[in-house]
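Usage

Read records sequentially. Each one opens with the input sequence:
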Amino acid sequence: MQESLPAARILMGDSLGFHIIFVLFGLTLPILVAWFEWMGIRKKEKKYIDIAKFWSKIMALLVVTGVISGTVVALQMSLIWPGVLDFGGKVLGLPFMFETYAFLIEAIFLSLYMVTWNKVAPVVHWFFGVMTAFGANLSAFMITSVDAWMNNPTGFTMANGKIDTADVGAAMFSQTSIVQFIHSMPAYYFAASTAIAGIYAAKLLRTRYKQRIGAAHTWDWLVIRKLVGFATIMFVVMFITADITGKYLAKHEPTKLAALELQYQTSDNAPLLIGGVAGENETVKGPHFEVPGALSLLAGNSTSTEVKGLNEVPEYERPPLYVHTLFDIKMTLITFLAVAFPAYFILRKWRPSVLQQRWALLVMAISGWFGIVLVELGWMMTEIGRQPWAVHGYVTTSQALTTHDVRFLGMLFPLAYVLLFIVTLLGIRKLVRDNNKVAKGVR
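and closes with the structure output:
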């Protein structure tokens, strides 16, 4: 029932949009918790351990909510988009199974980690935390490889219009999988660490100046410094992997790149378009400017590199061109952050008192959420940029859709996710309040 297609897309987009927030915290917090616990063990400083223990409670809660939201997404793949599995089941079956095993590793060691605080040797307990992070990130790789395969299906042969033989290893560890994984993971770590730093900045923002520069908030400032340092490393890695991703798209997913940059015609010395929106008859309207040769340079390290345009595919196979606007928004935020991070370190070294001002804390509190926006925009560009294909070149989104009417579900499930999100926030709020009471000596 093709009239259900818009509702099905809303349902999937809403599900992934909420799920990815749980995921990025669920992947990053195990790393941060293990890091802070290790610093506590190495420096013999209990406060590091206390922070790790507090964060671990939030981590456990987010793993539970992530499982709930992830289960809904998995059900959608089989119930609403059966065409994907009907076509690619021979390839996708093992990655989904391995993802289950990876989650089992995460769940087992998370359980051990949470119930053995102060009951086993510190290094053993820390090891449980490391294995939790390993299981979470292994699970993320398996799911990323599934999406990568949908973007650029490899590792199989066809016979009579169906997959005949499948090399699952080649599909799981394809160039597409590796490129998506090495770019998305530092983005997750960056988003979660800046968000947490922003929360601590907001906490300091609610205090008077003399209080926030006093001994009572020394550790809040230390947490911000550590997280900003970690986020800066991830930001640099994101720049490196973004360059790798751009070159990959130019070679293997040129239509997506052409849509992101409104590159209508195949050409060398292709310009990088900044601003503007798609107009009629392959034009660009609205305020914009071009950087001559820059897109070719990014695609192949030379202005003479040929960049394929949208003219290479029929119009009905082109992605929605508003992805270019999403890309512009993402680059605007990245540009701001590229200025903000050096400014932070300069001020911290030569004018630390400036960072203690309300306006500086407000900037940190607000911009701390930019990382999550970047992750959401990145996934929107990845998924919308693949349209109209569910499995690129083989199964369109309309062909993958179930024959059942899902319009009611398409409107119901967004409300369910909003409810889950609210309940999760209330749970985190309760954990924060309990931690504050303990910190103040109130039982």
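Summary fields computed downstream for this record:
- DSSP finds 16 helices and six strands in the chain.
- The chain has one domain: 2-244+328-439.
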